[in-house]
TrEMBL record:
Alphabetical keyword list: Aminotransferase, Pyridoxal phosphate, Transferase
Family designation: Belongs to the class-V pyridoxal-phosphate-dependent aminotransferase family.
InterPro entries according to UniProt: Aminotrans_V_dom, Aminotrans_V_PyrdxlP_BS, PyrdxlP-dep_Trfase, PyrdxlP-dep_Trfase_major, PyrdxlP-dep_Trfase_small, SP_NH2Trfase/AEP_transaminase
Domain spans labelled Aminotransferase class V: 28-328
GO-annotated molecular function: transaminase activity
Positions in coiled-coil regions: none
Name recorded for this polypeptide: Alanine--glyoxylate aminotransferase family protein
Required cofactor names: pyridoxal 5'-phosphate
Residues passing through the membrane, by range: none
Keyword Transferase: yes
Length: 383
């Protein structure tokens, strides 16, 4: 049957009908009097979502563009930075730093394990000359389903006193409590196709006063991603370049939806979806890739042994029109990832788990009692 696809991947995520209808509206001019108040509302609601009074700037890019902007606007060639790397995206930020001639000191952890916060503390405390200019951390590592302990790492950065903290919150913003002003986070990057519940194409960068001070002396090259341009125009509820107008209108809609639900309820829903998914996977006797104490509310990675990950994904897609994500790089074929981020409900999880059970049985995997996964998820939802 056509048009029944269910996205259970970490992005793009499902889009609510209200947002789809907003996308379908006739475009309006981005310099028009009709667009300016829409943009003003969006900027205000973005600050609400980010729990900040800082600038939250909007770019026409993916989350990678937001992170690149977050790095290059506040640093200079040769600057020493610490980069946490325990997955595909941590590795990427190290590559971005190297591409721009930064002196990147990579703190690594095995994929599927959280970053060791003590390694950050030790390196920051040892930096008595204050040469470390920034610490770059992925909050929710999309490739593995690990949630890193950003609060503790940030506390060590604050004790250092000089370094900025730059955060990839692409799959945590809108799913995990990230109180930017309370914690004093300097730069936070995210993307529209995740917790924002709209298609890819927009990215967001929150910038602190401390980061803007660093911007004044930063010497890395930039033009389209020069956040100073965006800040100047945002003060007039405008853009320095042409934005995807219809995505902005859809974002206006989803931010209103999020405000109606409320931040605490949003975070609680994602926590509930995570718990239900993980309990269901355990009931199916499938190994989880990330430990319970470092599991992301955005995505659950599963590492089956007795049945092939890609075969599971293939059956789910062909038979039940459910898309789940595969592994990346050396994890390709070794894990599959269940997304539960953004416009996802309890019903979606029950549907996905029931379909997963059926797919496993079709593939000859019978190390579980039929219905056990659904029952485990339902138990979480009942509590």
């Amino acid at each position: 049957m056509d048009d029944k696809l269910i996205l259970m991947i970490p992005g793009p995520t499902p889009v609510p009908e209200q947002a789809l209808l907003a996308l379908a509206k006739h475009p309006i001019g981005h310099r028009s009097s009709e667009f300016t108040p829409i943009m003003g509302e969006v900027f205000q609601n973005l600050k609400w979502l980010h729990q900040t009074e800082n600038d939250v700037l909007v770019l026409a890019s993916s989350g990678t563009g937001a992170m690149e902007a977050g790095i290059i606007n506040f640093l200079s060639p040769g600057d020493r930075v610490l980069v946490g790397s325990n997955g595909k995206f941590g590795e990427r930020w190290g590559e971005v730093c190297q591409a721009y001639g930064l002196n990147a000191d990579i703190i690594t952890a095995e994929w599927g394990k959280p970053l060791d916060t003590e390694q950050f503390r030790e390196k920051l405390e040892a930096d008595t000359q204050k040469q470390i200019k920034a610490v770059i951390v992925t909050h929710s590592e999309t490739s593995t389903g690990v949630l890193n302990d950003l609060e503790t790492i940030n506390r060590h950065v604050k004790a250092h006193g000089e370094a900025l903290i730059i955060v990839d919150a692409v799959t945590s913003l809108g799913a995990v409590n990230l109180p930017i002003d309370e914690w004093g986070i300097d730069v936070v990057a995210s993307g529209s196709q995740k917790g924002y519940m709209i298609p890819p194409g927009l990215a967001f960068v929150s910038v602190s006063a401390k980061a803007w001070e660093a911007y004044k002396t930063a010497k890395l090259p930039k033009y389209y991603l020069d956040l100073g341009k965006y800040r100047k125009d945002a003060a007039k509820n405008s853009f320095p370049f042409t934005p995807p107008v219809n995505l902005i209108v859809a974002l206006q809609t989803t931010l209103q939806m999020m405000q109606k639900e409320g931040l605490e309820n949003i975070f609680a829903r994602h926590q509930r979806l995570k718990n239900a998914t993980r309990e269901a996977v355990k009931a199916l006797s499938l190994p989880l890739f990330a430990p319970d104490n470092a599991a992301s509310p955005a995505i659950t990675a599963v590492a089956p042994v007795q049945v092939e990950s890609e075969q599971i994904r293939k059956v789910l897609k062909k038979r039940y029109d459910i898309a789940m994500a595969g592994g990346q790089d050396h994890l390709k074929g070794k894990i599959f990832r269940i997304g539960h981020l953004g416009f996802v409900s309890d019903r979606d999880i029950l549907t996905a788990i029931a379909s997963l059970e059926a797919a496993l049985l079709e593939l000859g995997y019978d190390a579980f009692t039929p219905g056990a996964g659904v029952a485990a998820a339902a138990k979480v939802f009942k509590s």
